[in-house]
Every structure is written in structure tokens, then in C-alpha cells.
Amino acid sequence: MRSNTAVTPTILLLSAAVIANGCAGLLYVLSLFILPIETALGLSRADLGFISSLALISFTSGVCVLPLLVARVGRVPAAALAFALIGGGHIAFGLDPSWRALVLGYGIGFGAGSGLAYGFALSLAAALDARFRAISIGLALGAFALSGILLPILLGDWILSTPPGAAFLSIGWTTLGVGLVCVLALVAAARPAPATGETEPPKPTAPSMDSPFALLFLIFFLICFIGLAIVSQAAAVAAAAGIMPAGYAATALTLGYLGGSLLGAPLAERLGETKILLSLGCLAVLGSLLLLTKHPLPLFSGAAIVGMTFGGSGSVVPVLLGMRYGAENISRLYGRAIIAYGLAGFLAPTVAGLLFDHAESYAPLLALCAFFGLLVLIATIFLVKLAKPSAGSDLV
């Protein structure tokens, strides 16, 4: 009876984490709306590219703010706000299909809400029992990738055949309903008394950068740059190599991303910091070089390997932060580390486009990605030489 009592809150919290990150994965559905919104509002690709960048910046901000929000108001209000922004951002455009509503409702509102949901899912998984914390982080972060795979398959034809305002409205109301389920799961999992202090997250303190964190930040940035650069150009890389259907490259990358998200955290716990980071660096180099080939199998394999490296980094880094600084600090430290993702998201697609325009070839971009993979290996070697800090490091 005691074991059932202990297991039930764990299942409820993990379910809430998976639900939250599944909805955060709506961030990857915007690409399906490019043509319908272009037609409906008369916008250019540059306009929609701006919306995508704005949503990514808002997403990063949401992840950064989440630990402060939870510390101030608690889990349930934070979850409610995340889903209100996700659903409300879609509903705002649904009620007023305009450029202004797309910027404010989707680019800012939804982007911030999805970031809050992503950070919230990670904080829930990281707070679970140490015996299955790594697999919980993998499942929670894998839900973000899984929705990016399933939603285009399930919603692709419907989105293309539905006015964008009506589609956004339906998604918004559905998300609010799903959010209610998530909030109810959190309420059901709540313990009657905070006897151990687990229900009250630690309050953030002033950050103080240290060398290991700076190197982990750099490694995360390099891998995210590689991943986001290839994400933005995967199909075009295949098309430039004369491989058709070129869209399979994007599919392979996304499937690799899912596998990396699910397996990265458990493997990091099993292999340790040095081995997992060296593995990610080697995979980044290998995947980038395979994308230089002109044959379908190695090229699609390269896309999958880059996706695995990119997805793996997202679930590996929280585990490594917990190893160095204590599991109780994973959420807010990852909130700082995610800035690396935001910087990469701001730079990578633009750099990828500029390099291709200049050379009329993807060879310079892929060479740069391979070089960044080598930098991951070098940074890891430097990280090995640094002593492991205690959980009470001045970073936290």
C-alpha cells in the first residue's frame, strides 16, 4: 500500500511533464502554416521567418523565467499560466487573423508559454526520485520531439485545408482543455503537507559563472548551432545533392532527434560526463561529414545522426548539471544554459543561409558544423581537467 501511495504521485507528475512538453512541441508546427498564412495575410517568407525567430526568442525567455515563477507562485499557477499563454496565443490569432495578432499572440504569447511549459516539464522530471530521474527527463523532453513528429502527420492535411484563423482557434481551445488535465494531475499529485520541503522549490540566488558551467554552455551552444543549422536546411541539403524526395532528410533528422531525446539522459547517467560529451562530439563530426555525400543512405544517416546529437544534448545537459551542482538545481541552471539554444537559434539559420548564398554550395556550412563538432571534443577535454564542484558551488 505504501509503494502504491508513493508511485501514484510520481506517475501523475511524469504525466503532467509529458503533457506540458507535448504542447510545447507545437512550436514546430508553424512550418505547416507558412503557405496558408502567406496566402491569407499576403505575407512574405521573411515576415514568417521573423515570427519564427520571435517565437524562439520568447521560448528561450520562458525557459529562463520558469524557475523564478515557480519559486514565487508554485507549480500549479505556473502550469496554468503556461497553458493560458499557449492556448491564448493561438486563440488571439484565431479571433483576429492579422499580422499584429500573429506577432503578439503567437510570436510572443505562445512562444513564452511554450518555453514555460518546456522548463516546467523539465523541473517536474528533475524533481522525481533519483532512481528514475534520468529516464523521466528523457521521456519528458522526448515528448517535445514526439509532438514535432506526430502533429505534422496528424494535422498536416487538415491545416492545409482549413483557414489559418479557424485552425489556430481549434488548436487554442484544445490546448486549454489539455492544460486543464495537466493542472488536475498536478493538484492530484500534491502532498497534503510539505514535510520534506519538496513542494517548495529552492529560491534562486545570484548567479556566479564558473569554468565548468561556461564549458558546458559552450558545448551546448556548439551542438545546438549544428542542429539548428541543419534543421533549417536539411531538405535543401538533400535537394542540392540531387537526392529526391529531399524531405526524407528532414524526416530522418527528426526521428534521430526523438531517439536522442529519449536516450540521452539515461546514457549520460550510465556513461558519465566525459564519455557522453565525447560521444556527442564524435557524432556531430560524423553526421556533418556524411551530409557532404551525394548518396541517399549516407546522407540520410548523417541527418539522423545530427538529429540524435541535437536531441541528445537537450536531455544530456540537465543530467550533467545535476551531477555537478545537485539535482535540486537542475531547473534553474538549465534555465541559464538554454540561452545557448536561443543564441544558436538566432545565429544558425542566418549563417547557414549566408554561407550557401556566398558559395552556392552547402560544403562550407557542413565543414563549419564538423569543425564545431571538433570544438565540442576540445572543450570536453578541458572540462575533464576541472575538478567536479560540490552541490553547493557558488554558481548556484
Describe it.
This protein is an all-alpha fold. It is 81% helix and 0% strand. The protein has 13 helices and no strands. The protein has helices spanning 2-24, 34-41, 45-73, 75-95, 99-126, 133-161, 164-189, 211-240, 247-271, 273-290, 296-325, 330-359, 363-384. Helix 6 packs antiparallel against helix 9 (247-271). It is globular.
Tag the structure with descriptive keywords:
81% helix, mainly alpha
What is the gist of this entry?
This protein has 13 helices and no strands.
Number of helices: 13
Number of E-type strands: 0
The percentage of residues in β strands lies in under 5%
Main beta sheet, described? none
Low-confidence stretches: 193-207, 389-396
The helix content, as a percent range, equals over 70%
Described by its quaternary structure, the protein is single chain
Query: Structural class from helices and strands?
Result: mainly alpha
Give the N-to-C terminal Cα separation.
38 Å
Secondary-structure element order, as H and E? HHHHHHHHHHHHH
- Average pLDDT score: 86
